[in-house]
């Protein structure tokens, strides 16, 4: 069995270095590790080639996004050989080689339409939910009135156990770590490269579910995701998130989906502006969040 492991990098070499140290003991006869670098300015490609000669690096001239880079690496690697499985792994993760081996061994001849993910933890050892459910239009819209914490609870839903296995099931798992048959990635249609950042894994999962695929988490396979617990929202990131959300709903649900996304963002930011403005009388961070949502509210009218 020959398998492909893909990491996407954009600066932040320290994360990549630590991740590759975790992967260096994977069997080279079973695993081909490749990196698609999105035009890093910190010499990530040169440093990887020097310290980790077992990794193949594909250098992109510019940052075209997570989906584009993964697709490019997959197609480039398949020019010279074919693979049974493909795994997409965030570079800001720490894991034992057994993590991927356990996922790999989860597949059998009866699981051609299965996509596997590990159980994910934050750096402090707490669980980081990487599983989600698809929301009905009303569930999605009503989240605009909820706090971030309560909205997350709705987004994640409930994990279901698969009897007599170590598998847990939800509608989909995010792109921190996903493993599937290489033929499945092609059959589903790869990542939509119109998503620069955010929602590319949601879109991929939605198309996968439409094609009859199921998502399992193997609870015996563990990794630590360093980026998930401390990610901070900036204006550019928030605008990109909202833009990707709009594209997702318009793509899959047409005009109704586009209007639903707009209405959700207007109401969400309107509610946040009111609540953060009141709290901002006493706290500066709330005033900053209120100003952020003013800009997001205005942007919702544009796109």
Structure description:
With 303 residues, the chain is of the alpha/beta class. The chain folds into two domains: 3-225, Spore Coat Polysaccharide Biosynthesis Protein SpsA, Chain A (Alpha-Beta Complex); 235-302. 45% of the residues lie in helices and 20% in strands. The protein is built from ten helices and twelve strands. It has helices at residues 13-23, 44-51, 66-77, 97-105, 137-142, 148-156, 182-188, 200-210, 235-279, 284-302, and strands spanning 3-9, 31-37, 55-59, 85-89, 93-94, 114-121, 131-132, 160-161, 167-170, 172-173, 177-181, 214-225. The chain has a five-stranded mixed beta sheet with strand order 3-2-1-4-11, with helices on both faces. Strand 8 and strand 9 (167-170) form a beta hairpin. Helix 9 packs across helix 10. It starts with a strand and ends with a helix.
User: What separation lies between the terminal Cα atoms?
Assistant: 46 Å
Counting H and I runs of at least 4 residues, what is the number of helices?
Answer: 10
CATH class of the largest domain: Alpha Beta
Q: Oligomeric state of the chains?
A: single chain
If classified by CATH, what would the architecture of the largest domain be? Alpha-Beta Complex
Order of SSEs, N→C?
A: EHEHEHEEHEEHHEEEEHHEHH
Helix content: 40-55%
- The radius of gyration over CA amounts to 20 Å
CATH topology of the largest domain: Spore Coat Polysaccharide Biosynthesis Protein SpsA, Chain A
Low-confidence stretches: none
Largest sheet: 5 strands, mixed
Number of domains: 2
CATH superfamily of the largest domain: Spore Coat Polysaccharide Biosynthesis Protein SpsA, Chain A
Q: Which class of secondary structure composition applies to the elements?
A: alpha/beta
Whole-number average pLDDT? 93
């Amino acid at each position: 069995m020959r398998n492909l492991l893909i990491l996407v990098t954009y600066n932040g070499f320290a994360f990549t270095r630590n991740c590759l140290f975790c992967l260096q003991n994977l069997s080279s006869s079973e695993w081909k590790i490749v990196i698609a670098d999105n035009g890093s300015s910190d010499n990530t490609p040169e440093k990887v080639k020097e310290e980790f000669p077992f990794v193949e690096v594909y250098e992109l001239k510019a940052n075209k996004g997570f989906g584009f880079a993964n697709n490019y690496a997959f197609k480039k690697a398949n020019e010279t050989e074919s693979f049974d499985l493909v795994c997409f792994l965030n570079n800001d993760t720490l894991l034992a080689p057994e993590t991927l081996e356990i996922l790999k061994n989860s597949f059998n001849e009866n699981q051609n339409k299965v996509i596997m993910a590990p159980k994910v933890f934050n750096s402090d050892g707490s669980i980081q939910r990487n599983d989600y459910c698809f929301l009905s239009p009303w569930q999605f819209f009503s989240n605009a009135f909820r706090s971030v914490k309560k909205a997350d609870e709705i987004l994640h839903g409930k994990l279901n156990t698969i009897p007599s296995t170590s598998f847990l099931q939800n509608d989909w798992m995010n792109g921190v770590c996903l493993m599937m048959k290489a033929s499945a990635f092609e059959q589903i249609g790869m990542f939509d490269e119109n998503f620069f950042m955010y929602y590319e894994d949601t879109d991929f999962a939605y198309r996968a579910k439409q094609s009859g695929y199921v998502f399992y988490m193997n609870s015996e396979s563990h990794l630590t995701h360093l980026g998930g617990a401390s990610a901070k929202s900036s204006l550019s990131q928030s605008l990109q998130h909202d833009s990707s959300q709009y594209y997702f709903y318009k793509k899959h649900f047409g005009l109704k989906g586009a209007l639903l996304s707009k209405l959700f963002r207007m109401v969400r930011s309107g509610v946040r502006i009111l609540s953060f403005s009141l709290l901002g009388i006493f706290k500066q961070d709330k005033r900053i969040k209120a100003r952020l949502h003013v800009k997001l509210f205005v942007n919702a009218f544009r796109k």
